[in-house]
Every structure is written in C-alpha cells, then in structure tokens.
Design brief:
Helix content is about 10%, strand content about 50%. With about 475 residues, the chain is mainly β. Strand 10 and strand 11 form a beta hairpin. The chain is globular, with a radius of gyration of 23 Å. The N terminus is likely disordered.
C-alpha cells in the first residue's frame, strides 16, 4: 500500500471534483467518435487494473496518455491535435467485496496546430473532471462476509457516475450520473436504471442554444440466463429532454423526448463463434424546423448484428463481421440530428437518434442515423512466441457505407449530393503492451468518398499514442 497521505489526496480530488468546462457544439460527430475511440482503449486498460476481491483492500494509481491525431475531415485537408490525459484513480473494497468505491479523475490538455481547432481555441484545458465515481453494494458477497452464507440470488446496487450500457449499447452507451439496481436469480436478471446526463457531454442537437446537457434516462432490462450459450434480453428506455436554452430562437422551439423498446441476444452459436444482435424501435416527440407549439411524432428503428470467430491456433487470429442499420428521414435534408435545418414538419420524424455507440470507422466515423454500414475485420498476434512482442496485436477493419434515405442527410455535412452511396473505408491498427505499465497504439484509416460527396478526395486519419500506468 502506498503512502496514506497520497491516497487521501487522490481520493479527495476524485470524489469532490465535478467541475467541467462548458461544452462546445462546434465539433462534428466524426471528431467526437474519434476521441472516444482513443479514450476507450485507455479506459479498458484501467478497468482491468482493478484488484481482485479481498476481505479489505485499498488501492490507487494513475496513468498518463499522449495521443497524436493527424487527419483530414473533408473541410481542412490536414488537422493536427496533440492530446494529453492525466488520470488518477482510487479503488476501495471492504468485507470481501460487499462494498466497493471507485473514483477516477481526468485532466486533459488539447493542443491543436494553429488554426486547426473547431472553436478557435487551439490550446485548451479540460478539467479536472470526475470521469468515474461510484459506490457498489453486493448482497451475495455481503451474505458471505457477514453470515458465511451462500445464496443463489443476488441484488447489486450502484450509485454514482459510470459508463452505462443498455442491451448491447445500440440505444444507450454513455456515461451517466445514475442509480442502478440489478437483481439476479438462477434463470433471470432484472436491471432498473434512473440517471441523468453529465453536463459536459456533447448533445446531438448542435443548433440548440445551450451550454450544458440536461437529459434524464429511465430503463428496465430483463435478461434470460437459463440457456447455456445464449443471453437473450429485452428492455425499455425513456429519455426526457430537460435542456435549458440560453437564448431565444425566433420561430423555433426545441425538445427531443424519446422512448425505445429493444430486443436482442448475445452468446455463442458454436464453440469459438460469438455473436451479438439487437433490434430497437424508437418513438417519442420532437420539434421540427420552425415549429413553436406542435411536436412531430418519432417513428424510427435500428438494428445491429455481429459475429466473431476465434481460432484456437498459434497467433490466435480472429475474424469478425457486422451489419448496422439506423433509419433516416427523407425530410431531414441538411442534418439527421439538429432541430434547425433538420426535420421539415410532416408530423413524423423517421430518423433514428439514440445515445449508443458503435465503431463506425476511424476517418468517416458517422453517427448512427440514416445509415447502412457493413464491416469486416481480422486481427492476430504474429510474434506471440517472442517474449518482447508476445502482446503485439495487428489488425484491420473494412467498412462500406450506404444511406437509408437517399434524400436524407448524414452526420457529415460535406455529403452534399443526393446519392445513396457514401463510400468505403479501410482501417489498420497495431496495439502493443510493451510492459504491464506501458502500452502503445497506432491506428491508420483511409476513407474513400462515394457518389454522395462532390469532393472525392481520400480522407486519411492517423492516431498514435502511448499510455503509462503508475
């Protein structure tokens, strides 16, 4: 255990710091998705560092990450960003894991080349922010610790800020301040969720005059556990828009209240052949362009299916394929998400807008709306017999993009031609765990625009970075 005063200092910062800079609505969806792709790799590594359950344990640490982005977004032929992230975390658990507390703060310095930022601020500090911070109570572990009794059911309650996923994450996969209660029996698992968005998160309506995001979420999910290889699930999700407008917009009201019903399953079809599938229907109400009082009805849906095969041979290769669909609206000719220049009033908005996440490519990285996407990929560990390079992974993903509604918009504003064919992309990556504390990654993507773009210039995206854990 490290020095107690350092632990107290790190814990205090993590638990009391909730300051966030005001959000900027000028970053395009592709840039937001690209930043998330870099952050997810670091988050996975930090989550894996959490210690195994003991009677009592207190641990803490941190990480420093540096990432370099060089990319063409279709507007500027080249943008350069250097991103520095410092994270401090602490994890405490008591009574054989019956009680757990986890907190992690993040301080970020964004350094663009002169003139390359989206908001005119080429050098910017973000934070310190509370990235994760929650308390968990586990009834099954409590019964074992306090009564030395094993029970075949469990109740697990969490309160705080954490990454939340409903289903496979097609409708909701986002960091929320929330309360979650999960009840597990031998055959079923029931999860209830109530939460709200983190104010500094980006809102999908970039035309709305607001400085912080205010949305509430309520969800219930039922998962069947009685099958050996499969985990079918069903859920309902409500989202209420509580955003506050900072100024009046003439002849325009704002609001997007949505409801989602989802069905899906995850598991194995045969040995080493994994799959996931999810279908979600969206309803609700929203304001169309130049509407003050009358709301339009939302009628939209989305679907995603993935399969992955892991070969049980040297180098451990894996191959995967995926199909993603999110409905669009032909009346949304300028934006699939915004209110201003969005849906033209016809009483029905058929464009899918959720709060989920999928890897939709490094360079194009479109939002899941008015989109067909096909992906195929492969990866392997070519030097696993050599100790220095045994954890070096090479891989590739190839994408094909198509519009659902030819006349409708996608999240990339440079898709300025009414054509269904958006283009294709090839991505390559290398991940190398050099030591237990040092990792390096490089990702290269190239998007080849289709007929929906008047500018047919190939867009490239390069990301490289290192993470040091301490």
């Amino acid at each position: 255990m490290k020095h107690a005063w350092v632990l107290c200092w790190a814990s205090t910062i993590a638990l009391v710091t909730t300051m966030a800079l005001g959000q900027s609505n000028s970053e395009p969806d592709a840039f937001i998705n690209q930043q998330r792709a870099a952050a997810d790799r670091v988050n996975e590594m930090l989550d894996a560092e959490m210690p195994l359950t003991q009677d009592h344990s207190v641990d803490f640490g941190g990480s420093y990450s540096f990432h370099l982005f060089i990319f063409d977004d279709g507007v500027n032929s080249s943008r350069t960003l250097r991103r520095n992230d410092l994270r401090l975390w602490t994890h405490m658990q008591f009574d054989k894991g019956a009680h757990q507390i986890y907190a992690r703060t993040r301080l970020t310095y964004m350094d663009f080349n002169t003139g390359d930022s989206y908001d005119g601020n080429d050098d910017d500090w973000e934070g310190p922010n509370l990235e994760r911070g929650y308390y968990v109570f586990d009834l099954q572990r409590a019964m074992k610790a306090y009564a030395n009794k094993d029970i075949d059911y469990n109740v697990r309650a969490k309160i705080g800020r954490d990454l939340v996923r409903v289903g496979t994450g097609l409708a909701l996969w986002e960091t929320l301040d929330h309360v979650e209660v999960q009840t597990t029996c031998p055959a079923v698992e029931l999860t209830g969720l109530a939460g709200k968005s983190v104010g500094s998160n980006f809102d999908f309506d970039e035309t709305r005059p607001t400085d912080r995001t205010h949305r509430s979420f309520f969800a219930g999910q039922l998962t069947y556990l009685g099958l050996e290889r499969h985990r079918p699930f069903a859920y309902v999700l409500w989202q209420q828009d509580h955003n506050r407008d900072t100024r009046y917009t003439q002849s325009q009201s704002f609001g997007y209240d949505s409801f989602y019903v989802g069905l899906g399953s995850t598991g194995e079809l045969v040995d080493n052949l994994r799959y996931s599938a999810e279908w979600v229907y969206e309803s609700g109400h929203t304001y169309s362009q130049q509407e003050l009082t009358d709301k339009s009805v939302i009628r939209a849906w989305a679907f995603d299916a993935q399969i992955e095969y892991l070969f049980d041979v040297p180098t451990h290769p894996r191959v995967s394929t995926e199909y993603l669909f999110a409905s669009g609206d032909s009346n949304r000719t300028l934006s699939p998400t915004d209110t201003v220049s969005g849906n033209i009033s016809d009483d029905t908005d058929r464009g899918f807008n959720g709060f989920g996440y999928r890897d939709t490519g490094l360079s194009f990285a479109p939002r899941m709306s008015n989109l067909h996407m096909w992906r195929t990929g492969a990866s392997f560990f070519p030097f696993e017999e050599k100790k220095t390079f045994e954890r070096l992974e090479l891989g590739t993903d190839w994408f094909l993009y198509w519009k659902h509604q030819r006349e409708g918009a996608v999240s990339d504003v440079t898709a300025d031609v009414q054509s269904s064919y958006l283009g294709w992309e090839m991505d390559y990556f290398c991940n190398w765990a050099i030591t237990n504390d040092l990792t390096w990654t490089v990702r290269l993507g190239a998007f080849f625009p289709g007929d929906a773009f008047s500018d047919q210039t190939t867009r490239t995206f390069l990301l490289t970075g290192m993470t040091w854990s301490f």
